[in-house]
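Quick question, first post here. What does this chain look like in 3D?
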Amino acid sequence: MTNKIKTERPLWRWWAKALGQKASNKDCEADKVALIRTLIFATYLITNAFIIAGVIRQWNRSPTVVILECEVPSTLYQTEKEKIIEANRRKFPYN
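> Answer (accepted):
Ran it through. Tokens below.
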């Protein structure tokens, strides 16, 4: 059991040093700060994993194109003949 404790401490120390400068001269306080930094790092890692998963999921999806056609009726006619033609188009749209 003591061998396991001795091997865990150096790994924890290496990890804590990899997270950044030691926050305090007291080991207990420095360990708490290292734990908080580890939690922040874990949230960054999880967030990035979700972002990458979303990019991979959408990678080869073809874009959806929606084309909307709208006809805006105009009340301004240049001639009386155009007015009659437009009225006929509205009555018989398939001719």
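The CA atoms of residues 16 and 69 lie 62 Å apart.
The chain has a mean pLDDT of 79.
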